[in-house]
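[[Local backbone shapes]]
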Amino acid sequence: MPSPFENIISGTEQRQIIYQDDYVVAFVPLRKQAPVHLLIVPKRRIATLNEVREDDAVLLGKMMLAARKLAKDQGIDETGYRVSLNTNENAGQSVFHIHLHLLGGMALGPMVTQSYKE
């Protein structure tokens, strides 16, 4: 069964594509969490970061380069932005097709609770 992202990549599900190259596609998620929130998704499905292989290094680099370009295009490269990749359920991964979240346009605060004590 195709992931929701594969449906967007194939054009089965219509979404405004912000950026696309041979390796990745970027679009606004259904539920934005910041003024700037884009998903950067590889065109080839990899379920989680745990499945990444050595020969995926170029693909992962292209994802990061796309994040840098999009941050500049969105005007948040100088003020600051966050790039995150969640792996598995405890980290908040809900679509099992790796993707970067590019977030910015506001002060984002801490990534995890500051009250955690060991």
